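Weekly puzzle thread! Below is a chain. First person to post its structure in token form gets bragging rights.
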Amino acid sequence: MNPFVFAVRGLRRQPGRTILGIAGIAATGALLFDMLMLSRGLVVSMEQLLSGVGFDIRVSATHATPLTGPPITNMAETVAALAAIPEIENVVPLRLGGAVVDIGKRSYDVTFMGADVTNRRPWTLVEGRDLTIDRRSTMDPPSRDGASARQAHGLAAILVNRNMAQRLNLRAGSSLTLRGACTTNSSVPPVTFHVNGIVEFPFDQARQLTAITSLKDVARTCGDTAQNEADMLMVASRQGDSPTAAVEAIRRARPDLSAVTNEELVARFQQVEFSYFRQISVVLATITLFFGLLLITVLLSVSTNQRLGEIAALRALGFSQKRMVSDVLWRSALLVGAGGLVALPLGLALSIWLDRLLQTMPGIPANLRFFVLEPRALIIYVALLAVTMAVAAVYPMWTVARLPISATLRSEVIG
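Winning reply:
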């Protein structure tokens, strides 16, 4: 009988202890697996969100995180200058503000955005028609194509997200009246919009109400004249040119602006905003690994001590020292392997529940994932379990290797 089959039969002779051991390892393994997914989950998820928008460069007025610093002035001239750079395919100015929807005695706060888009859009159309805004609508009268929705309905066009459509019972073709809340000017009259369609914004929070229209209509709703300002420029590099080359070209053309690629932005988040979760994951993973190691060591040690007489008898019958030591190692491998396999679905189920819980935190986009399954996390998980299995078996193997056969048998007979 080879050592593997011998170890399997040995564990089957003690089903209660084996099941409890596997359950304990599965619980600690699930938590360890979750912490490994958490260590890089936010980084991987943020990379996916940023790349899914279709723009690989963000341009702002300062080195502050985009949308947190002062606006970019002379926006039309800046957009024209960047669009003329050969490495750049598309530039979309974006402005962020606020608005209020009054329905009866209840008011709803809305994240109100403005963007002048051409062939790329930082959102996904779900229902209805998209915005068709000509670049010149920011400074000049709207073109025939860009004004089609206005002329057809006599109202400015707007897009709303799913949350807003469900909360306010809106659909494509509905009318929506917004009261600007971008400035302290409270004398601005409400503006009625025509809902062109329903869209999904990748960085919306779970319950956030979001609407987007042209920059000109944002300025009109907010009651200010800052039509030539943008909080951020979203830039798409030309196919065949790297985002890094486009950023270098932007910095040469406009050194007064701050341009960052998606990779640089994620690296900034990883060092500052996401560092807390990475530290937490490392601490919890270390603690979990320690308790898992302790659990397996105790189980193997207790099992080995209770089998000392059996082990001594087998040695006396001709079983080699190497054979009995390998039996202990195989038992450790079977317990850890079975518990580790059970831990994977448990960890995935736990991560889904924890993700939903953490996504309710303020300021967290609904599409951002804290726990992301990637090959790297799975490889590290298997490697840590293998090390734990080997280390936990060291003391029981040492006990078996140094077991005095005659003294042990004599003690068993006398006992």
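Puzzle host: Confirmed. Bonus trivia for everyone else. The mean pLDDT is 84.
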